[in-house]
Write a structure and sequence with these properties.
133 residues; mainly alpha; two-stranded parallel sheet; 3 helices
Amino acid sequence: MINFTLLAAQTADSGTKMEIGDAALTAVFGYCVVFFGLFLLMIVLFITGGIFKSKDAKAKAKAEAVLENVKKEVEANPLTVTPLALPCAPGSAGHVKLHGVPDKEAAMIMAIVADKMQTPLNELRFISIKEVK
């Protein structure tokens, strides 16, 4: 059996003795190192957040410019009917041309194809859907 009191006495005697001032200085230095690391991490997070916010702002400004151009074009030529050239939704693969197929049926067909192929719908590209008679 191990005598725990003897083990504790040997452990207490084997370490280096530190004065209270040295221990306080070591603790303060350790705290400073930790908080400096946290401060650097905070700076990195602020910088990456700013980068992503600026990218989002640029994309939003571009989409608004496209919409404004379309509105001006429609106002200039009110008698011509042109489809709106709106930007695609994030994760979409473009527009689908439907030939004699209602939207609801086209959505069901795309979902069935994605399920049978075991592929996410946003990774498939449908160009057109036509009803075969």
